[in-house]
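Per reviewer request, we include the raw input and output of the structure prediction for the construct analysed in the revised manuscript.
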Amino acid sequence: MTIVGYARVSTREQNPAQQEAALTAAGAERVFTDRGESSRKISRPQWDACLDYLREGDVLMVYRLDRLSSSDAHLITLINELGQRGVDLRSITEPAIDTTSPMGRALYGIMAVFAQLRVDTIRQNTLDGLAHARSQGRVGGRPTVMTPERVAVAQQMRAEKATFPQIARTLGVGEATVKRALAAARAVTPNP
């Protein structure tokens, strides 16, 4: 078992020495440090190297969980991925986060359930809001460039055996836009 440390500071001006010293004092044999990297970024140079270095049975140690990610959903996913690889997680300043102990695993499981509940609640609220907007006649998204006149031109050209790329060039739109507009027009007025 190897204890591997990970430290991160958000700007180049910040100094990660405190994190690195704490990780080394807590037993980290190797410390990877990202400087000037946001926790919102999933891929960071030293983080990627740290993930590559970790092996089954190792312990990833961080000063605080926010060094890994600022997103609850991403953090839960990350901890699950580490667990699947057989890598435990320990936080120096958050002693409850220690998946090497039964209590730490239990607390993590509870946190994971609440984080997933939060994600599911946000998703459901979004879907409910979109359904309500649709029931009021509002449709989100970008307005279509395919006006009824353009659709009529596309239908006429298609009847004259023009290809989708030819129609798209003539109308100054993408080929997929032409296909979607013609499919929608067919759905509204099916051929006899």
